[in-house]
Amino acid sequence: MFLLQTCSDPMGTGNASTSNDFFLVGLTDDPQLQPILSVFFLFAYALTVLGNLGLLALIVISHRLHTPMYFFLSNLSFLDVCYSSVTVPKMLMGLFSGSQTISFFGCVAQASCFVIFAVTEFFLLASMAYDRYVAVCNPLLYHSIMCPRLCLQLVAASYAVGLMNMVLLASSTFHLTFCHSHVITHYFCDIPPLLKLSCSNTWVPQILLLACGSFNVSVSLTIVLVSYVCVFLAIMRIPSAQGKHKTFSTCASHLTAVSLYYGTTIFIYLRPSSEYSLGRDSMVSVFYTVITPMLNPMIYSLRNKDVKETFWNVLEKASPFLCLLVPRNRRCPKQ
Predict the structure, then answer these.
(1) 195, 201, 207, 213 alpha-carbon torsion, rounded to 10°
(2) Could you give the count of Cα atoms lying within 13 Å of 201 in the half-sphere of its Cβ?
(3) Among 139, 84, 68, residue whose Cα is nearest residue 295
(4) Is the pTM of this model over 0.85?
(5) Which residues pair with 4 in a beta bridge?
(6) What is the mean pLDDT of residues 181-197?
(7) DSSP conformation class of 333
(8) Which of 5, 179, 232, 328 could hold 16 in an S-S bridge, CB 3.0 to 4.6 Å?
């Protein structure tokens, strides 16, 4: 059973009362900064939702984009919307209303969903790297290797690992007794700051956090690195400079997304919770909960010819009046 208690004295003796709320510190308590941050994060969240759902819609409606690469990309867009929606709306509510309270079971739900989506994204990015490896190094066998069944299995396995991580980390964390303070030094319910609130022995959940984080990063990052080493060697064997540039450009977007996501999450989770710092770590967390999900649709669409052409085609078909927005070389034919 989950335990959340407030002790009546430092020794924990006397009557204990059960509380159902945690209190999130948020990013800042400066009243002058709060309106600025509210507008920024509202704008960032709107871009995240519109960008990712827009990219997802383009992939679904366009038969041209019904390939393994875009199947993984559509799942990444879905994950980014869910991932950002777990943390940002609650943070915005706190900035707009000043109320940073979250119920105990709300905290359990937020932390659990966050773990599932964060870990799933690690292995989805690894699956995308493997897809690029097959496309570049075995182009003739690409469609037979990356068949729909394998693509579904890779995505399902990514979610399964995320679910297993959630069960291990949430169960070990929320079975602790919280009896010193209910103030979480973060803007959402995350595992490291929660461990600092417990008056129980946190050795087991800390070891689990480090073990799960190490496993997730080492396995998924190894797949990414090995895949791209093979891709790089294959690119070096291409005789023409134009061919090298074209092949590398198909991988550059994914490498950018991988660098942003892995860099920030490794900094947060692969170290002891005793080293947790509110100001520094909250700012780093903003990158992988807000900035990266917002940038991913831009990274994958601005450098992608297929996505841009599909977008203009959809724009042309949507309304004749929108044709004026299309570049001259893409204008609708006169009737």
Answers:
(1) -10
(2) 3
(3) 84
(4) no
(5) 178
(6) 85
(7) P
(8) 5
Per-residue tokens: 50: 């519109």
- Determine the longest span between alpha carbons in the chain, in angstroms: 85
Token pair recorded at residue 199 = 């008056």
Six-digit token string for 43: 């704008």
**What is the β-pairing status of strands 183-184 and 21-24?**
parallel
How far apart CA 204 and CA 305 sit, in angstroms, is: 49
Q: 76 pLDDT exceeds 70?
A: yes
Query: What CATH class has 33-93+107-175+202-308?
Result: mainly alpha
Give CA–CA dist 302/249, Å, rounded.
11
Angle at CA of residue 200, ends 16 and 83, nearest 5°: 100
Summarize pLDDT for 240-265 with one digit per residue, the tens: 777 777 777 777 777 878 887 887 77
Dist CA 239 CA 47 (whole Å): 41
Cα–Cα distance between 153 and 159 in angstroms, integer? 10
Q: Which of 33-47, 86-100, 149-163, 207-221 has the lowest mean pLDDT?
A: 86-100
